[in-house]
Design brief:
The protein is α+β, with helices and mostly antiparallel strands. The protein contains 13 helices and twelve strands. The strands form three sheets. Strands 3, 5, 6, 10, 11 and 12 form a six-stranded antiparallel sheet that branches. It has a four-stranded antiparallel sheet with strand order 4-9-8-7, with no helix packed on it. A two-stranded antiparallel sheet has the order 1-2. It comes from Chaetomidium leptoderma. This is Splicing factor Cactin. Belongs to the CACTIN family.
Length: 486
Amino acid sequence: MIDGRGSPRKDRAKDITAPRHDSSNRIAKPFRPPPTKSNVANATGRYLTQDQQAEQFIADEDKFVLKQAKRKADIRVREERATPIDYLAFGLRFIDSDRDVFDEDDDDVDIQIPAPETVLQGLNEAQLRELEEDMRSYHTLESNARNKEYWTALLALCTDRRQRLKPQGPEGRAVTSVAFDVDRILSPKTLEQLEGLEKQIKAKLQSDEPIDTDYWGELLRSLLVYKAKAKLKNVCAAIKGARVEMLRARDPERATALEASGGFTSTVPELLPGATKPVVRPAASTPGPQAGASSAPPPGTARFAPAENEDFSQATKALYDREVARGVNEGEEIFAAEEAVPGIQKPLWADKYRPRKPRYFNRVLMGYEWNKYNQTHYDHDNPPPKVVQGYRFNIFYPDLIDKTKAPTFKIVREHGRRKGESFAPAGKEDTCLIRFIAGPPYEDLAFRVVDREWDYSAKKERGFKSSFDKGILQLHFQFKKIYYRK
């Protein structure tokens, strides 16, 4: 009777406090197939390694620098203060698929653009060398195939132009004797014909048959120049076509006139005074006639003069342009209060490596100091004079011989003054030298800065930073704030 039909079986006995099973309300886990090799590969593809993340960061940063460079070139052309590189970059904007649509201006199509070859013709050897550096920066940063081909062709023409301006030796005069024949052969040929002839000439030079190597070598060199001209001609034709289409909707008559013309002007507007370089290169400061007067500008506002042995390598140029593109934020000023390095001697490695001065792009942080005196005599509508609140040093060492030793810095206080001591008169602040030291091939640098206690906190945007990464020594610091109790 106890184990009758109505009694629950022992193996089915349950806790009476457990939840009751309801067949009409079932909750089941979704079915997930077992992982396969393709699923694992897809999941792994969503995560980047540290090297891939670094490459992605550099690529994104290069895009930002290139975008800023194009934007600044557009602004200078529109304001009629353009440099040669600005005209070359501005012309490309009409066919640039990577151009930011927010940078478009309807009046750009009305601006007269000089032909790229015309821009090169009016420059001397020093200007061509400077322009070549600018073009290499664009060529390095560009990822668009047609844009890169445009800069490649211009670099070839710029190099050829520089070679023609140099005085010729005996070999050069011998080669010039066949220049007329070379031009007569190459000038009427198309790009496809030049590419075919290039293969034939290279095969002939590599063969063992007796040939006039001077003639065929000059023919190959000239062929590469004409090949660049043909590629540039195709790009210019595309630029002209794009401008014609933009004008056709606004002014059909002007579009027809532009289509019948060459599309570019044959003259280059004269540069405005001081517009030979879009961005001033920080270098040694030149004191004015009253350097010691109280009206002298604060550190970082002095004018700059280029150094003779300054580092102009391609790696340095890329780092410098990338830092310049970041711009100067509110409350910052460009800082270049460079001083002579005390007790400098010729380095031991000077006979083996050519010493060069590293380039830099430094900023000084300026702001108001609301101490008790300023709170009494000034307000926010009538603020006190700005004072130095900190510095941001960015010094470029991309070509260090020994990359295992990072550059360092040290503070130099003159006249035996120690840290914490003050020799400055009332109302003035002590200054000291901060000296940056690196190995070959770089010389030491020194800057005069305000000597106050640094804030070593880790606050974002205000904290202390001292690092050396990717060829850039960064030393960022601000001074400790002094708070006054009422």
